Amino acid sequence: MKHPNDALTRIELQSPIPEALAPEIERRLFFVSPEITGYELVVKDQEVHGVVLHSPEPLDHAALTVKVDHMVNNDVRRQRVTPARSVWTSPHRRTPQGDDMFDLLAESGAVTEVGEGQVALGEPLLSLFTYFDEAVCALLAEDFDAREYRYPTLIRTRALETAGYMKSFPQHLMFVTRLRNDLDVYRDFQDSYAVDGLTPGALDSCGNVDYCLPPTMCYHTFQQYGGRTLEADRLHVVTSRGKSFRFEAAYSTTLERLWDFTIREIVFMGAREEVLNSREGFMRKVFAFVEALGMSGFCEVGNDPFFCGTDTSERIWSQRLMELKYELRLDVAPERTIAVGSFNFHDDLFGKAFDIGHGANGPIRSGCVGFGLERLVYAFLCQYGLDSADWPAQVRSAVVGS
């Protein structure tokens, strides 16, 4: 968040990049340094020439220049400029409430900000939360016999390593550790805490990072099925709902970007064409559901913000070119949308990584669909407001019973 008395540090890029790639810079700037509280891009003649960074205290210009150059050159510059391809656009045009919705929810007691990127939810969000989750599950049940699981909150670090998450998304990782199981360690900790309170030095007494907070639900599923050979004569469908955690470096005071949030995830495992057809068919059902609610938005080819890898730009290009990921985006303010769901195809990436066989056909192919339930509810309220009398009849009857 920018403050009036912030120090400003201007960084000139080694050479300009197309303005079309500006969002890729913006997605990464807050990860460059924890002191950055805000930024502006320096744009001229449809090119980004530099960035102006805000911070409470002056920053080391030389050190920040090296970091910004590395991020831009490694993760952004080599990306090819391609217009986003839309695969669906809602026929409805609703005018969202704008950026005041979270304040209205807070004034009504429906939400309370309890920490950075953490929000307590009350009614009517809880009932809407249940409605949308059950609606997604009902759509799934129309065509698929899915097995539902409730997974533990923690996930083994080894599972994220196997999935390649450490190399692709180190910025989001959330490690879980504990004090070593040793009486002397406990005593030393108590003595130190009595004098200095809790300090970062406490981590020196911790024993391991064997577990993490999960960034999404599907890694639980692939870990669960790892080392198994699945029947080749059918599609295997698994669904789950659970808390997911991603460090984002900067959180908006809304339900749009949370540190911990809830995902309803569906994983398809089977033959390549069957997985692709299942993803496509379910995606179209979701579009029809959004249209039936009269909501405005669109779905386009998306990409994940790969970070710091030597092949970052190539992976983003590949993901876009092969249309491995689609993002469902709904309007939350004039000229602004948020992603509420994604439809992904992994090919044999996780089949190979987790050694999941598909009969005698080699590794399984997989895809997944995920919905951020807080975002979905928030987008609905931004478009329809807090008065349930204005909600679509099917939502009103399910939530308020009339």
Structural summary, described in words:
The chain has 402 residues and is of the alpha+beta class. The protein has 13 helices and 18 strands. The strands form 5 sheets. Strands 4-14-15-16-18-13-12-7 form an 8-stranded mixed beta sheet. Strands 1-3-2 form a 3-stranded antiparallel beta sheet, with helices on one face. β15 (325-333) and β16 (336-347) form a beta hairpin. The radius of gyration is 23 Å and the shape is globular. The two termini are 42 Å apart. The model is unreliable at 305-310 (pLDDT under 50).
**Global structural class:** alpha+beta
Beginning-to-end CA distance, first to last residue: 42 Å
Gyration radius (Cα, Å) is: 23 Å
Q: What shape does the CA trace take?
A: globular
How are strands sequenced across the largest beta sheet?
4-14-15-16-18-13-12-7
Strand content: 25-35%
The overall average pLDDT, rounded, is 90
Strand segment tally: 18
Counted by DSSP, the helix tally is: 13
> Main sheet, how many strands, which sense, barrel?
8 strands, mixed
Low-confidence sequence ranges: 305-310
Helix content: 25-40%
